Amino acid sequence: xxxxxxxxxxxxxxxxxxxxxxxxxxxxxxxxxxxxxxxxxxxxxxxxxxxxxxxxxxxxxxxxxxxxxxxxxxxxxxxxxxxxxxxxxxxxxxxxx
Length: 97
What we know:
The chain is 0% helix and 47% strand. The chain is mostly beta strands. It has a single domain (13-82), classed as CATH 2.40.50.140. The chain is flat.
């Protein structure tokens, strides 16, 4: 194998950012059911390294394959493609205590 191998990349949505420097990315794909011939939506979760803790829940990100960083983490966040709705801060109403 030569050094010009391209790394695999995937685009998915961040579903969890509770860990330090790690996000869980859900990647969806379409597949035809072998018996019923209907198109089925399947999702796979990947744990990806996010060194800056920049990605938030709901963001669409691009991840690329990397060396094993931990027991389950083999992907790295390369870029945040779009910001998701995420969690909104709810301001308490005035007078409510």
